[in-house]
Each structure stands twice: as C-alpha cells, then as structure tokens.
C-alpha cells in the first residue's frame, strides 16, 4: 500500500491503473479510523480493483468553535488499518495541497438541504463537505465511492450532488457499525469520559424504543420523538435535534405519520461531545 500526499502523484498513479482497465473505489474519511471506516474499506475492496482511502481533516467543514484542532490525527495507525482491509492507496494531502489559497473561492452547495438538521447547528458544514467530496471525486475519478449511513444527511446530500451535477460515480451506502453496546462508532467517541460513554448508550436505546413503538403501530410524531428524547435526558445528555424525516426527500414530518419510508435523525451532547445517530423505520 502506498501513501500519497500530492494530488498530481495520485492522479498519475490512478491514470495508470485506469489504463490497465482497473476499477477504482474511493473511501473518503477524516482519519482516526475504526471498524466503521473498515467496513467501508471492506465494501470497496470487494467491489473495486483499487481502493483509495483519503485521510483528510477538512478544515472548511469545521465551524469556528468546533474541534478542528483537537480532532484525532494518527496516519500510521490509519495506514495499518486501511492496509489490513485491502486498501491500495492512502491519500493524505495537507490543507495547503487541497486549498492552496486558504479558503476556497468556489463551493458546492445544496441550498435547500444544507441548513436543515445538522446544517442548522453547523453553518457552512455541508458546503465544506460537498466541496471536498467534489474535489476528491475529480482528483480520483472513482467508479464507486463509499459512505456510511451514520452520517445520513451527508450521504443524502452527496447522492443529490452526484445526481444533479452528473458526476460519473456510483455512491454506495454502508450501514452503521455499532459497538456491541449499541453506541455507533465514531472518531469523536474518544472525547467521551467513561461515564459519558455509558450515558450515551441511551441514544440507541431511545431510537430502538421509538422503532419498536412505530412497528407496533404508533404514528404520533410527538410520541415517537419523546421516546428518543426521554432516555437521553434521563442520562444527562442534551438533545440538539430529533426529527422524523422522509428517506426520499429528508422532509421533516409533523403530526401523524403516513405510509412512507422514514428515518429518525438526531444529534445529542454528552458533556461537550456532540454525537449523531439515526434509525430507519421500516414500513409495516
Ligand atoms: P469521518 O471520518 O467521520 O468523516 O467518516 C468517514 C466515513 O466513514 C463517512 O462516510 C462516515 O459516514 C463513515 N462512518 C463513520 N462512522 C461510521 C460507522 N459507525 N458506521 C459506518 N460508517 C461510518
């Protein structure tokens, strides 16, 4: 496995592979890789001949008071994990390589969706994500790109970008990987104290409670949201948002739920750590 830091070198390397008729899978990450990322790399290795894992803590998707500086960085351990799961290349550019003029002049945005849910609490976040992913797509020209459903709004926005801008890439969604306890794996779990980590299990417990109630016939948005919110509050968490939304449009649901595919999206704080999670409500 090769570690490449330069855009030009990556382009040249991938061009050679493409000429040999090899397919390319891209797994964009911010590093601090865990089993969640590993399942994306596994999915890519199974589907594409060459898997590129990008490791880049993208400054333009962080807000001013967010955790850009303290975000965990450990390229050596990341390389080992990526290699063990079949990656051929780690692309680890510097911020200067990706944004030579600092703040970019050109952004990719999704005006209606970028300010909903996570976007309403993280202004500028999704334009930062879409812009870096568009750059990575144009640098790598992958056949497939793999994204986790843990970041549900993110993968939805990326699919929208690919559809509306006609990127020649197939987006593959990978299900959420959880600890046995139910906590969704996240690089940010490292910030949690032992007690916060225990309390944070209430996120998945609440989501499961709401899903069971839904499957048993509950259709009140208020009641279902409360089933998610209560356990979090009882465990000293604070809820940033909990919304039930359509999986096909991300439109927020109110009142009584009809017959469509839905997902509960949420963000909650335990101590200073912000965690996101979601659960799909299967149709009955
Ligand atoms: P990040 O490094 O947090 O930006 O995540 C990079 C990719 O890994 C994104 O597509 C995430 O959705 C995905 N990912 C992160 N955590 C998980 C998880 N627990 N299960 C599945 N995918 C994940």
Provide an overview of this structure.
Strands 1-4-3-2-5-6 form a six-stranded parallel sheet, with helices on both faces. Helix content is 40%, strand content 20%. The longest helix has 16 residues, at 125-140. The chain has helices at 7-19, 35-47, 75-84, 95-98, 111-114, 118-121, 125-140, 152-165, 194-199, 201-215, 221-234; strands at residues 2-4, 24-29, 50-55, 89-91, 144-148, 170-174, 237-246, 262-270, 273-281. The termini are far apart. It is globular and about 55 Å long. The protein has two domains: 2-174, HUPs (Rossmann fold); 187-279, 2-Layer Sandwich (Pantoate--beta-alanine Ligase, Chain: A,domain 2). The mean pLDDT is 97. By secondary structure, the protein is α/β, with parallel strands linked by helices. Helix 8 links the parallel strand 5 (144-148) and strand 6. The site of adenosine monophosphate has 17 residues, from helix 2 and strand 5.
């Amino acid at each position: 496995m090769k570690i490449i830091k330069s855009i030009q070198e990556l382009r040249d390397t991938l061009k050679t592979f493409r000429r040999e008729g090899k397919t390319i899978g891209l797994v964009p990450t911010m590093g601090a890789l865990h089993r969640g990322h590993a399942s994306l790399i596994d999915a890519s290795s199974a589907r594409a001949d060459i898997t590129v894992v990008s490791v880049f803590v993208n400054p333009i998707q962080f807000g001013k008071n967010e955790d850009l500086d303290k975000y965990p960085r450990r390229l050596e351990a990341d390389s080992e994990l990526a290699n063990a799961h079949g990656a051929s290349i780690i692309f680890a550019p510097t911020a200067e390589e990706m944004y030579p003029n600092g703040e970019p002049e050109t952004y990719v945005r999704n005006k209606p969706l970028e300010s909903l849910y996570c976007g309403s609490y993280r202004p500028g976040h999704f334009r930062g994500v879409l812009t870096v992913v568009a750059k990575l797509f144009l640098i790598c020209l992958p056949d497939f790109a793999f994204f986790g459903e843990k970041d549900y709004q993110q993968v939805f926005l990326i699919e929208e970008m690919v559809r509306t801008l006609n990127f020649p890439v197939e987006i593959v969604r990978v299900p959420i990987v959880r600890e046995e306890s139910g906590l969704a794996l996240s690089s940010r779990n490292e910030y949690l104290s032992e007690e916060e980590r225990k309390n944070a299990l209430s996120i998945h417990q609440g989501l499961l409670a709401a899903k069971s109630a839904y499957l048993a016939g509950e259709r009140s948005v208020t009641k279902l949201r409360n089933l998610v919110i209560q356990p979090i509050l009882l465990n000293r968490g604070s809820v940033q948002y909990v919304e039930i939304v359509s999986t096909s449009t991300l439109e927020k649901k109110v009142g009584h739920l009809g017959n469509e595919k839905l997902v509960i999206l949420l963000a909650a704080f335990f101590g200073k750590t912000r965690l996101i999670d979601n659960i799909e409500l299967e149709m009955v």
